[in-house]
Amino acid sequence: MTATGTTLAIGTTLDTGATLVTGATGTTGGRTAAQLIAAGHRVKAASRRGTPVLGAAPARFDWYDPATHGAALDGVDRLYLVPPVGDSDPAAVMLPFLQQARAAGVRRAVLLSSSAIPEGGPAVGVVHQALPGLFDEWAVLRPSWFMQNFTGSHAHAVSIRESGTLLTATGNGRVGFVDADDIAAVAVRALTDDRAPDTDLILTGPEALSYDDISAIMTEVSGRQVVHRALTYDQMCAHLAAQVPPEFAAMLAGMDRAIAQGTEDRTTDAVQRLTGRPPHSFRLVAERERTSAQ
User: Fold this and answer.
1) Which residue in 20, 83, 93, 140 has a CA-CA distance of 20 to 30 Å to 60?
2) Burial of 244: CB neighbours in 10 Å, binned 0-12, 13-18, 19+
């Protein structure tokens, strides 16, 4: 089903067992763990170093180290899955773990994917396709580009801080940028509602914005000029290849080109339906994160 295909009852939650949150120190994992804890749910916070998270039981977990998997799954009945970063074939390590999780009694899994990757598509799309066959209760979150790309440690945010520029090959293409807090809020509902979504959910903010729009809002909020420099696909490849391997640079530049062609020019009502409130606007997030950084 699409992101608009399932309506869930707001406010109906399960008395849950422990939730294993992978990537619990990351952008969505950290927020999901915090929101679960705040709502009174038991959490095992999984990270490669087993970093303590207030209110959660720490768990050392490495996708590439199966020796860490059994202990991480102990006492768990649901999973929040953040794929290994930068792996072009995450299914190779994720599917054996998910089979182990099912055998250990896990009954619900919520996978973080991307609006740009369909079921059965490349990389995490393979895991998406396999998930319904592994768990009776499941959801795949397919968020659009994160609003935090412009305020956190992403290359765009660094470029804004260092030179006041945004470099993309997106042209005038628009994106339904989404707040990571909203992704986490949907993840919490998908993990704890009495009925699992059992579908994929395309998550966006309330409006589709171009990178020129983003630059204008960042200029107004920060009081410092931010300019979007539109590059060609080849120029973007060359720019990125100075920082990442050429194949990965070509993939990232290709995603920009797809935006220019309109593939991300959409909004959905998934955040509203799952959480009972509208998604946050980019201006609100930019103002909020600027204030919290001061």
Assistant:
1) 140
2) middle
